[in-house]
Amino acid sequence: MKMEFTAKQIAEYVGGQVEGSAETTVNTFSKIEEGKPGSLSFLSNPKYTHYLYDTQSSVVLVNADLQLEHPVNATLIRVPNAYESVAKLLQLYESMKPRKSGIDPLAFVSPSAKIGEGCYIGAFAFIGEGVEIGQNCQIFPHAYVGDGVKLGDDCIVYPNAVVYHGCRIGNRVTLHAGSVVGADGFGFAPTPEGYDKIPQIGIVTIEDDVEIGANTCIDRSTMGSTYVRKGVKLDNLVQIAHNTDIGSNTVMSAQVGVAGSTKVGQWCMFAGQVGIAGHLTIGDKVVLGAQSGAPGSIESNQTLIGTPPQSHIGFFRQAALGRRLPDMFKQLEKMQKEINELKKNIEHHE
Exposed/middle/buried for 349, CB within 10 Å: 0-12, 13-18, 19+? Predict the structure, then answer.
């Protein structure tokens, strides 16, 4: 698929202003540091500004307030937010790709399943009994959709993704390769002889416009449902335990783990390897830095880092003091020796 657009057409679509030749054409995207003729790039991070003056990209999206220090060969399109504008263009580009449709003869689809119009089901995919799949869904090869599952419209289930029995998936949900929705929660009762498994008889409910990364796991609840609310975005290798409730538009980076029965608020942002203990309440708009560990509940509208989480200023002060500890320990030993010597001298004179 090869499409060509002029700088003028792009500017009209994203609401930008052309600086240079409005008739310059592009047919692909490239990073600004790897730009090539005929490609569109963008500049939003100031650290990459120096690439702008040498890039071979034909058109570059830049923020409207960018001040040029040298002449630029590329045609510029000034927009309020270059990052948001390139995201909009990439979405357009993605939407124009041809979509597969039809059921591959090597797929298994239960006779009791209901498949909406415009769907694609790839080879060796499994669709269980009583499944309901909405319109325009893409179920790729080797995907598994268990008995009684309901998927909304415009969902994408990539290869080797698994949706266990009874789970509920909303509209425009993407499950990337290897993700698992609805495996048993980690529930075991200790006994003198070992651990008795507690049956997990609930489900997982994923609301609209959610994206689940590769090899991410969302466990079914003991009873009731584990919830992933509207607009949530989970990176690869994220673990969401049973009976949790992840608030709308919350995002989590790779290797985040949320323990059971915890409620996470709306619009939260968790960086990589954040750990949240069980049975907690995390408020709305909480931002946690990488490798933070939350042993207790957190109120809304806070940006924290560390274990237990604290303000950035407090965390970096502690880190700075930590680097000085070896020298401080030497000074303390020296002071202790001097104190001991003074004690001896005093005792000798007495």
Answer: exposed
What's the gap between Cα 26 and its chain centre? 30
Q: What is the C-alpha separation between 63 and 16, in angstroms, rounded?
A: 9
- Helix extents (H) in 146-242: none
Max CA distance (Å), the chain: 103
Burial call 100-116: b when 16+ CB within 10 Å, e when fewer: eeebeeebebeeebebb
pLDDT (tens digit, 9 = 90+) per residue, 318-333? 777 778 888 888 888 8
For residue 281, the cross-strand partners are 263
pLDDT tens digits along 237-263: 999 999 999 999 999 999 999 999 999
**Both structure tokens of 5:** 């657009």
Triad 336, 342, 344: Cα angle to 5°: 105
16, 61, 65, 155, 227 from 81: Cα distances, Å = 10, 9, 10, 29, 33
Residue 164 carries which side chain, given as an amino acid letter? Y
pTM: 0.84
242 as an active site residue: the answer is: yes
Contact 47, 65 (CB under 8 A): no
Q: Which among 242, 279, 312, 348 is annotated as catalytic?
A: 242
Q: Nearest CA to 282 among 320, 312, 256, 317? A: 256
Which secondary-structure segment (H or E) carries 112?
A: none
Six token digits for residue 162: 């698994």
Residues 94 and 71: their CA atoms lie apart, in Å, by 33
Is 301 in a helix, a strand, or coil? coil
